[in-house]
Amino acid sequence: MSTTEMPTSEMSSNEAILGRTDVNDLDAILDVPNPYVDEVLHSVKDNADAIFTWDYEKGARPALNKLYEKAKDAQWNGETDLDWSIEVDQERQAAQGVNDAKAMISPEMLAGTCFAKFSDADWMQLNIEQGNWMLSQFMHGEQGALVCTAKIVETVPWIDAKYYAATQVMDEARHVEVFAKYLDEKLSGHYPLNTHLGMLLEDIINDSRWDMTYLGMQIMVEGLALAAFGFIHQMTDEPLLKKLLRYVMSDEARHVAFGVLSLKEYYEGLSDAEMRERQEFAFEAAVRMRDRLLSQEVFERMGVPVKEAVELTKLTPDAQMFNQFLFSKIVPNCKKLGLLDASDKWLRHRFEEIGVIQFEDWVDTGAEYESLDAVSADRAAGELA
Ligand SMILES: [Fe+2]
Ligand SMILES: [Fe+2]
Questions:
Q1: Which residue among 84, 85, 194, 232 is least crowded, i.e. fewest CB within 10 A of its CB?
Q2: What is the 3-state secondary structure of 17-29?
Q3: What's the burial of 4, exposed, middle or buried (CB within 10 Å: 0-12/13-18/19+)?
Q4: What is the pLDDT of residues 99-134, one digit of tens each?
Q5: Residue 304 lies in a domain
Q6: What domain range includes position 234?
Q7: Could you tell me the pTM of the whole model?
Q8: What pLDDT was estimated at residue 10?
Q9: pLDDT tens digits, 55-91
């Protein structure tokens, strides 16, 4: 889309927001180098001021106070509340995944492609690598959430929000811990942070405005994670991962609610120009997260032509449905915050362009956390100490 087609001339171009003119330019997406591959540590400039408040009135924001009290009661222990003695047979699961794929993809569909000569062992390895890749990205994303939420503790001016964010820091530490443990003990290898997810995390941390951390992390990254975890929780029959995801989702639903509740109040006081900046940031985040789903690193490791493999897998109905479904929490939450229709519906048009607007009237996550509170449910049933 060229800038002249945009509803308002004041909006930044794709070039300015994304670094490419065509949002779907696959060559440009795959060409971005990955700076994280050979690192142990990575520094990002955090440009924000730490804010003290001398207004200690607890409960001045009742919805945030309620969330905080809920979070204190809904803590769980990643070491002792999950049964790590469960044996995970990754090869058996991969074999099942290959059988499922074969039921949908005929050999004729693969004729003449880089997958035509794939043996059963190759398919199995591809499936195993995709599992390792996916859990690795979840783990890195969780560390991003840990760092971003610690930043919110520093930068948000409201005491109820600082209190709540402090509980989220603990939640995110537990999430990094359980995903890292699952990868190390139950799967078979790590992948580095995907470069597109990394760009988004760095942009969130770079930004000096406290509400941008919420928009990037709680609304966009965690909104996508909540949908992804829900999907995988439904699909997997591996009992350890199923319970791990159920408990992580119980926390994540609160985190997204924290974002919706905080930004709803703050956005009501913003000017049109300030709302436009938030719309552009939401669009950038949506595209970065879509770009990160291509699992290009898996194809590189498998030694198949990356662009061809990405194009083939991207086009399968299952992949398209999954990738769109990941926006099922983000779009209604953006609508609730007034982001879709500000600036002559700018973000609505961009979400139409990337094919995710159909979720706009799905349930927003402002109150959903109570129904997803598996930790409290298990405690009430005597299944959790
Ligand atoms: Fe998390
Ligand atoms: Fe989270």
A1: 85
A2: HHCCCCCCCHHHH
A3: exposed
A4: 887 777 778 888 999 999 899 999 999 999 999 999
A5: yes
A6: 193-380
A7: 0.94
A8: 62
A9: 999 999 999 999 999 999 999 999 999 999 999 999 9
Q: What's the residue count for the chain? A: 385
**Structural domain contains residue 345:** yes
CA of 283 to the centre of ligand 2 (A): 20
Supply angle C-alpha 334, 293, 258, rounded to 5.
30
State which amino acid sits at residue 19: G
Total domains in the fold of the chain: 1
Give distance in angstroms: CA of 9 to centre of ligand 1. 38
Give 248 Cα–ligand 1 centroid separation in angstroms.
Answer: 7
- Based on the number of CB atoms within 10 Å of its own CB, is 170 exposed (0-12), middle (13-18) or buried (19 or more)? middle
3-class state of residue 56 by DSSP? coil
Q: Does any domain span residue 187? A: no
Question: Is residue 251, in this structure, part of any structural domain at all?
Answer: yes
Cα of 49 from ligand 2 centre, angstroms: 23
* pLDDT higher than 60, residue 8: no
Give whole-number Cα distances, 202 to 80, 103, 332, in Å: 33, 41, 25
Question: Is the pLDDT assigned to residue 2 strictly greater than 50?
Answer: no
Q: Which two tokens stand for residue 169?
A: 């820091």
As given in the structure block, the two tokens for residue 10 are: 């004041």
